Structure formats: C-alpha cells, structure tokens
Amino acid sequence: MPDKDERDDEAESEDEDEDMEADFLKHAASMKVSKTRTSVSAEAYGQWNQKQAFEAPVFPKSREQLDQLRDILSRSFLFSALGDQEFEVVLMALEQKAYGPGESVILEGDDGDCLYIVEQGTLVCLKLIDGENKPVKTCQRGDIFGELALLYNCPRAASVVSQDASLCWRLDREPFNHIVKEAAAARRSRYEGFLKSVELLSSMGDYERSQVADALKNETFQCGDVIVKQDETGDRFYIVEEGTLSASINGEHMMDYGVGDYFGELSLLEHQPRAASVVVVSPSAKLVSLGQTSFNNMLGPLQALLTQRGKAYRTSVTSQSLNCP
Ligand code: CMP
Ligand code: CMP
Questions:
Q1: How far apart are the C-alpha atoms of 243 and 81, rounded to whole Å?
Q2: pLDDT tens digits, residue range 61-83?
Q3: Considering the entire predicted model, what is its pTM?
C-alpha cells in the first residue's frame, strides 16, 4: 500500500490530470468537437477549411499552458490573421518539445516538416557561410523559427541549436498548411514587396526584411491626423505606404513625406521627446510602423544611416536640403 506522501502525490497528480482533462473537455466543447479525445474535426470550424476534410491533431494542455500559449501566439504575425476558432485549433495542435544544451533542432539543407515557437530558453540559428557555421539569429521566448521551409516549400535555410535547456512548441506542416499558411504568406509577400522599395532598407538581406515585414503594424489615417506630436514621448517609427505627410517644428514647415519615406526615428534613437510634429496632408494615408523593441532589434544594423539623417536635421537650415530619406 502506498505511504501517505505517495498517496498525496498520486492524489495531486490525479487532480492535475482531472484539471487538464476538464480544461481540454471545456475547450473541446467550446469548439463543438466530436466525442473522440484524440482529434478535432476541423470541418466544423467554418469557411477556412472548405477545401477538404482535415483532422488537426490535439495535444491536451493545462490551463496555464493554454494561457501562456495564447499570449505568445497572439503576438506573432503568423497567427495574428487567424479567426478565433482557427486560433484555438492551432493552439491545440501544438506539441511541446524539450531540448538540452547543444541539442540540434533543425539541420540546414534538410526537408522541413514543422515550425517551432519558443516558450523558454535560447536557440541559435546558424548558416553555413564560407564553409563555417555562423550564427545569424538568436531565438528566445515568443520567437518562431522553421517557418521558411513551410511557407516556401524549400529546404531548411539554417541550422538551429538549443543553447541551453529550452522548451518549444512544434506545429506540423499539415495543420500549418491548412490553417495558417495562406494568410501568413500573403501578408509577408505584400510587405516584403513594399519594403524592398524603401531605400532605407535596401541594404538588408531578404530574411531580415521578412522579419521587419512580420513586425509591422499597419494603420490608415485621415487628412489632419497628427501622427507624432512635438515634445511628446516617442514609441514608434513610421514608414509611409500611401499618402503625403508634413513635418513642422513650432508650426514651421520642415519637410514633406511621400511613399517609402520614414520619420519618427530620432526620438527612438536618442531617447528624446519628438523633435517635430508630423501631420497627414493628403486625403488619407497608410502608414506601417515598428515599436521601439522591433526598431532596436531589426533596424539596429541601419543605425549609422539613421543617425546620419539626425545629424542632417541639426546642421540644415532649410527644409529643401532635407529631402528624405
Ligand atoms: P527554416 O528554413 O524552415 O529552418 C531554419 C530556420 O532558421 C528558418 O526557417 C528561419 O526560421 C531561421 N533563420 C534565422 N535566421 C535566418 C537567416 N538569416 N536566414 C534563413 N533562416 C533563418
Ligand atoms: P522624432 O523626433 O522621433 O519625431 C518627429 C520626427 O520628425 C523626427 O523623429 C524626424 O523623423 C522628423 N523630422 C523632420 N524634420 C525634422 C527636423 N528638422 N528636426 C528633427 N526631426 C525632424
């Protein structure tokens, strides 16, 4: 007969199992799932799966895991276009994987059958350059890797190695193709095309540009809307996708911005209040923007270029010489 501690442990683990089961069943019910506990009939989930019947795998998760995953996934470009039901199906289709220090997760050149979302730990992406494996990116909580092979049906473009003990969530090619791929690929290609035309970003590699595309927030504004206000704290960097805007300092016109131009970099670079106000002057304007963290991480390599223009503001006396970028 088990002693008291063992019984307590068993009771606790049974409680946890019941908790997980209750969570899962609640989930399944809310998704109008069939009686089986091992798969969800995704046909029930609306128009996104009209093409063919598809059984998404279901990996039961605790309430805590579901909450954490919802938080991580909702910040990611790949999943941001999903409807609520699609999002829940993807959530349940994720399988947790643990890796030890130095363990290989992806090998460059291999066929890819899944992508990963990092929950915990650090993983390094390495590319074979001049016969040497060189680190090209470090992935941490919330980062996604392994998406290229799925999005573009190509071999793995880099190797990925776990630097320490890490926890990742794995999404297989099948649910990815059925639920996520189309919208994610469309979003990426739309912004990649536009970003290629932005002179500031022309020195970036394709992968780095695709990371910028993923992090962009897009918004539409109307004539007269003030996008940044002089003396306020800055937290976003803007690129003009459509329309015309005008910058002024103390009411004096400084310069105009058109498609592909950028502004709002100065306060993020120098941690100073906004140096000017920028207002929409065309009937409407579409802008894409990056928050401070993405700006630091992704445009860090362009710091020299960006700072150069900052210096030009200070030395210039007329708005004419400040044609941007
Ligand atoms: P994938 O090609 O499927 O597998 C390797 C992954 O490494 C790749 O997807 C990207 O998610 C990631 N990666 C990180 N940095 C780079 C880079 N510079 N070029 C290509 N892939 C990269
Ligand atoms: P930031 O200070 O973040 O916000 C206002 C933006 O206006 C600034 O970044 C620049 O991108 C832009 N700007 C345009 N003209 C000037 C100027 N003469 N001096 C400073 N910033 C300017």
A1: 25
A2: 999 999 999 999 888 878 877 88
A3: 0.72
